[in-house]
Every structure is written in C-alpha cells, then in structure tokens.
Amino acid sequence: MSDRDGAPRIVGHGIDLVEDYRIARMVEEHGDRFLERIFTPGERSDAGGAGRVERLAARFAAKEAVLKALGTGWRGGIAWTDVEVVREASGRPTVRLGGEARMIAARLGIDSWHLSLSHSGGFSIASAIAWGNSGGLADRAQVAGH
C-alpha cells in the first residue's frame, strides 16, 4: 500500500518475545524432529555454534511476529517453515516467505519487510514490519477471516 505520493506504507507490524529456556527445552526433548518442523535448513545452519539457543529463539519470535504482521496467526495452512529468517550479505536479518504465508502477503500488497532481532537476559525478541506499495489494509479483514 502506498500513500498519495507513491511512497511505501506500513501494512502491518508484529512483535513477539520468547523465553529462551522454552526453545532449549524443546530442542532437548524433541531434538531434530522439533528443529526440522520449525526451522528451515538455512535457519538451522545459521543458528549453529555458540549462542545457538538464543539465535533459534530469536528466529522463533520472528516467525510469530511476521504472522502477527500478516494478521493471520498459525491458521489457514501456514507452516512454520513458510516464514524464514535469512541474512542479507550485510548480515541484516530479513524475511523470506513461502507457501500460504507468501500468498497472504501478496494479497495484502506486502513487498518488503524490516526485521529486528535481539536477545538478552534469557529472552529473545523480534519485531517485523511489513511494507507495501500496492494492496491495502482493507484486504486485511478478508485475509484474516479466510
């Protein structure tokens, strides 16, 4: 969605906070089954090494934040791996969508994302801002109710 001068506009915003111990517990209890269900191969690779739990928790929070920005939550056939956190060459995190999440974003006119991840004191947080040049917020009610 763009304003009158054609500048991109915010279509949606989502934020999520995760307690890191919850992700550590899921990895410990369910191992690869949990990791493969929630995270793409790229996310699992990117989160390896020291600080692994915090990076996984931040990506988990990002997935939740993106779906809040889309206005859908985890329904309508969206898979955890439909939302992927990827790093640009600069190291900046961004979002890549697939499956149903990608189709919903297209209907809303979302064509770019701003993503911020952070972790401290046993918590990880993500903020996702959806930007668009076409479509609009009027479509949000229709998408959320689909």
| Level-2 CATH architecture | Alpha-Beta Complex
CATH homologous superfamily, by name?
Answer: 4'-phosphopantetheinyl transferase domain
Q: What structural class is derived from the secondary structure elements?
A: alpha+beta
For this structure, the CATH topology is: Ribosomal Protein L22, Chain A
Q: What top-tier CATH class fits best?
A: Alpha Beta
What is the overall silhouette? globular
How much of the sequence is in beta strands?
Answer: 25-35%
Number of helices: 5
Number of E strands: 5
Number of domains: 1
Distance between the termini: 20 Å
**Largest beta-sheet details:** 3 strands, antiparallel
**Fraction of helical residues:** 40-55%
Q: What's the oligomerization state?
A: single chain
Order of helix and strand elements from N to C terminus: EHHHEEHEEH
The largest sheet has its strands arranged as: 1-5-4
Q: What average pLDDT do the residues reach?
A: 88
Note the topology.
Blueprint: E1 9-19, H1 20-38, H2 41-46, H3 52-70, E2 83-87, E3 93-97, H4 99-108, E4 110-120, E5 123-132, H5 138-144
Antiparallel strand pairs: 1-5, 2-3, 4-5
